[in-house]
Amino acid sequence: MAVLQHELTLSEAADQLSRALPGHRVEILQGRLTVTPPPDGPHALSLTKIGRIFEKSGIEGSRVEYVQGIGLWLPTLPDDFAIPDFSVVDDDFCDAYVQKNCYAPNVFRLVVEVTSSNWPDDLYTKVECYAQAGIPAYIVADRKHDEVLLYTDPADGKYPDPQHFKRGQSVPVPESVGVSVELSVDTLLDG
Question: Model pTM?
Fold first, then answer.
């Protein structure tokens, strides 16, 4: 007896993986399904400390909010989406809901990624995706190469070359984000 099997779409496969692998981050980047394990302690601590810095910066009443792990709908391919580690978004971002817990890119002012086992995605694929989405500022805490990269002001779907920051330096968050803040490279890399 023949059994008909339903071929899953990429979106359906992402949904199944999300249910099967709790705590893992499932994304579709440039038509490719990616799965990242839960963050290690220093990675999670970096995000906690970044949140504290933004909280102390006077973000309250600034018309922006910081959030962790919300979906960013990408314009690269029909099912593409990313789940940035940390984002600064317009305070009314919930009005820009697209689908699958993802929000339109126009409400994102800053995206921060702390690299883990999928570091090539953060350093290459997401640079392209976030530039095409028009994200004004993208910070990558590159733990693999022990530096922080700041991409700003994408034009024609591309970021200019990034600024590089080493240990002992601070990364100035661009004014376009809506909050005046500097982030320690050591905090971004180590937590």
Answer: 0.93
